[in-house]
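Intended use. Records like the one below are meant for learning the mapping from a protein sequence to its folded structure. Do not use them to infer anything beyond what is encoded.
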Amino acid sequence: MKGKLDFIFRPQSIAVIGATNRKGSIGRELLHNIIDYEFEGKVFPVNPTKSVIHSIKCYSTILDVPDQVDLAVIVVSKEHTLDVLAQCGEKGVKGILMITAGFKETGHAGAELELKVLEMVNKYGMRMVGPNCFGIINADPRVHLDATFSKLRPSFGKIGLISQSGAMGEAILAQAQDVRIGISMFASIGNKADINENDMLEYWGDDPTVEVILLYLENFADPRGFTTLARRITRNKPIVIVKSGKTTKGAAAASSHTGALAGLDVSVEALFEQTGIVRVNTIEEMFDVANALAKMPVPKGNRVAIVTNAGGPGILATDALIGAGMKLPEFSPKTVSAIQPILPPGTAVNNPLDLVAGATGVEFKKALSHVVKDPNIDSVIAICVPPVTIDQTLVADAIIETSKITKLPLYACFMGVTYGTGAFERLKEHGIPAMIFPESAATTLALIDKYRRWLSRPEGSLVKVVGDKKKVAAIIKKNRQEQKEAVIGDEALQILSCYQIPVASYKYAFSKEEAGRIAAKIGGPVVIKVNTPFILHKTEYGAVAVDLRTPAEVVSAYADMEKRITKAFPKSKEQFSVVVQEMITGGVETVIGMTTDPSFGALIMFGLGGIYVEVMKDVSFRIAPLTDLDARDMIESLKGYKLLTGFRGSKPVNIASVEDSILKLSQLVLDFPDFAEIDINPFIVSADEHATKAVDARFVLAKGK
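Structure written out for the chain above:
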């Protein structure tokens, strides 16, 4: 909501509570930064032991300040924070910046104090950044607020920057200054007791001074709210994130395929895939991408041209681009004819274009001027390895001049030099993203191309499915009353049918003769499986027999299976029985499932079955609810997707029927949070939608529901 946090980031007046004259202290340095950055508002130091600080009249408490105070910056010891907050509330302060540390980051006692702080903030209707934070900045010349204890003075630009870590915030600000990226606003959000990344996204989403949003996060305060906001904002402004904490979570305790595979950050990856967020692995990557987005337009396609004066770097860039899914098309005949006279006689005009080591700024300018006009090209990387015989600043000038005659994104890579050299400084001054290694340029372009594809993708729509909720609720209730941990067998397949997820026809047999009669009635090949709840992986015990074509074969298989299982489980009191089920042939075995993330909620999974899920783990996850495009992306993102589209003469499966079943499962888990994990395994997909069916399913019940 526009203006919602203006009293923090665009205050008319600030009180620094805990300000002091002692150099090196946070209270002194923070007040000094506000003054030195020339804040366009009133500043009131507050300290009961001082009368003047930094040549400014000091007040004993905020209640003694004669003017209205919009923002109170608190740097007192944690023991005094509650009293100070109460005084701020009585004064009518709207915004709090709590620099003070010693709260939940220190343990249980600190966490309890933080809860009391939040209660006090809420009592007076205030909003708070922190505690345990580095501060905030608004570099807009109309505000000029630096309420941090940093030694840096950021220039004004297009970037909104959020850091959960104060130390990382300082490092990120330093990097921004080094590569000459201007900051619009910066927020170190610390413990996020009140204002978190969602509040900042909402505020900056409508702020015209912020065009690109960068985040360094360790965790999400409200992942579901973040997802909703990010879906909307990334359509207008790119969001680039470094997310730390890629750890396996909960996989060891999972009892389903889906749960066991849902480790290693899959929830976060799913969130980013569904919202168009650009995820980077390092702070360096974040600034490469931010620099490019802030200074260059998003390319219209993934076709890249490389112009270089050295073959090796051109090959490195080519390998990196192709490996990341980018394309290096051939130049048009017109471009080839125009460039040929620039090169030594007999030299081929290829992409990458090698101008050879002796190329000067003149050759670079001529070549680039033709390349940027080529209709086959969407972006250009100019690579220079400056030999002692040429002036690298003239090559930089050639790149700068070319950027003035084209709307294509143009990136520079100068190898063998440092960021502080004259060529780099000149490129940065003129808004050209410049890097030292060609792989960095390639990675940057590939990440931005992923964002381009998100922008070009339709938003998708949520497909509402109406299931038989009453029947599903009754099945759940019955199993809970019987103290069962999971719904399996007939009842599990009934749940699928309640939501119109197709199921292969089946019946239960309690004798070999009955099994033979059922097989004769089903017709065609059948499968028989032992109907025993405690045997989860039936193939390990020979508890499955497939492709039984006659009743006699079924009778024989039943007898062998009964003998084998009875011997393996002699103490079992259950009557031996089997499921006789139609055998789906000619399809591809897949698995559909769900697991629950404690923060993100239900994660829907789709993958190829058999060895692909057991060994290769070829699966994809998305956070429920899914749109129709989310379901399609899940399918198309598999490494083995070609197996579904027709491979070496096989017929392509009916993808629409797979999407439909994934969406129905998404609706089922939204309707019933009673399920902790779900496996529909195998789910056979076929060219014929009527032969696309679930064969088996298992619903693990959530505890405490």
